[in-house]
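Weekly modeling sync, notes
Attendees: S.R. (lead), two postdocs, one rotation student

Agenda item 3: backlog of single-chain predictions. S.R. asked that every request posted to the team notebook include the full sequence so nobody has to chase files. The rotation student volunteered to paste the first one in as an example of the format we agreed on. Action items at the bottom.

Example entry:
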Amino acid sequence: MLDTEFLTILGLGLVLGLRHALDTDHLAAVSTVLAQRPSLRASGMIGFSWGLGHTVMLMLVGAVVLVLRVSIPEPFALAAEFGVGAMLVLLGGILGVRLVRERWHVHTHDHDGDRHVHLHSHALAEGHGHIHWWRDSVRPFCIGMAHGLAGSAALLLIVLSSARSVSEGLTYIAVFGLGSIMGMMLVGIVVSLPVLWSLNLGRPVFLTVQGLASLGSVAVGLTMMFHIAFGGQLF
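Predicted structure, as returned to the notebook:
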């Protein structure tokens, strides 16, 4: 039988997992992916994949830490956070480059002997490409794993101080992970709403929202890297 104290700790872990999904770097990372897949169904899958990757990494690191009863070195934790910042810059940059190169680019045509150029977007074509849920879920899963590694130090410090056994510690991490999965699925759906709304308003508005997602991800990533490099506090 689980005692009341441990059940309370598990309940707190679930709530903290839900809250964890609202961290700025998490929102920035998921937004860059959602901006490219304006669909409520896709947003839920992206949130689930992110949360699952996050939980898997926490469980792997947690098992090692709990069995060996060691803490994660601070330099390693800072390096992981810095890596997340670099990843956000990369994600935002990739989205920005894709908008420039693939969404809008120049075509040259000849009409009746007259040669002219105009902007063209393959994104305007309906039915372009196919959705493969397993392939499209790999990237948010890997992003979630990176965030899980970066956030493991603070969480496992709490687990080490409160868990009375390895099984209790892993149970807490699993419940925390469940909360983060639920939170990210809800976040994904909420974030996708303005993207869908912008798409209904026309392609220029939709492209503007994608551009803002790209710039936001780069800005958050650079801010993280700056604060870590110069010893500041994150957000």
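Discussion: group reviewed the output briefly. The mean pLDDT is 78.
Action items: rotation student to repeat for the remaining queue; S.R. to check formatting next week.
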